[in-house]
């Protein structure tokens, strides 16, 4: 039983490549963390995956013949560039957070209760949770 007669032709369509890029963007942040322990913001990569999936779905209804090779090439380069920009934005947010936030220090409960503003109390709680390794923040 054959589902698709000429499956190699499918890889010549930009809609299939868009869906492949969408899948890569979808699992990108988890893969970066599991393999290299790089924390990446999943929201820009999720946005890129959504855009790729929608473009791939819409592209299935557009005739993609051999004469449209320059158009396919241009669209693929633009999609790949968009994915790279979202990856940079995702990694940049994680690096920026590490640079801007102060080093976590363990403080006592007495110091936490002595804080006067809610912002200072929240900062103290974040510091404690980071020191203890919790995912509170």
| Percent of residues in beta strands | under 5%
List the helices and strands in order. HHHHH
What is the CA-based Rg, rounded? 23 Å
Low-confidence stretches: none
Keywords:
137 residues, DUF7940, membrane, transmembrane helix, transmembrane
Structure in words:
- The chain has 137 residues and is mostly helical.
- Helices cover 68% and strands 0% of the residues.
- It has five helices and no strands.
- Helix 1 (14-36) packs antiparallel against helix 2 and helix 1 (14-36) runs parallel beside helix 3.
- It is elongated.
- The chain starts with 13 loop residues before the first helix and ends in a 5-residue tail after the last helix.
- The model has no long low-confidence stretch (mean pLDDT 75).
- Keywords: Membrane, Transmembrane, Transmembrane helix.
- The chain crosses the membrane at residues 16-36, 42-62, 74-96.
- InterPro entries: DUF7940.
């Amino acid at each position: 039983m054959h589902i698709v007669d000429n499956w190699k032709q499918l890889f010549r369509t930009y809609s299939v490549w868009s869906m492949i890029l969408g899948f890569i963007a979808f699992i990108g942040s988890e893969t970066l963390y599991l393999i290299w322990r790089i924390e990446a913001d999943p929201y820009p990569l999720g946005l890129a995956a959504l855009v790729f999936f929608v473009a791939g779905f819409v592209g299935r209804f557009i005739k993609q013949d051999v004469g449209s090779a320059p158009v396919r090439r241009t669209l693929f380069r633009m999609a790949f560039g968009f994915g790279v920009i979202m990856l940079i934005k995702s990694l940049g947010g994680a690096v920026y957070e590490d640079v801007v936030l102060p080093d976590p220090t363990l403080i006592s409960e007495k110091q936490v209760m002595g804080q006067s503003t809610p912002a200072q109390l929240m900062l103290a709680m974040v510091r404690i949770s980071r020191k203890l390794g919790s995912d509170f923040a």
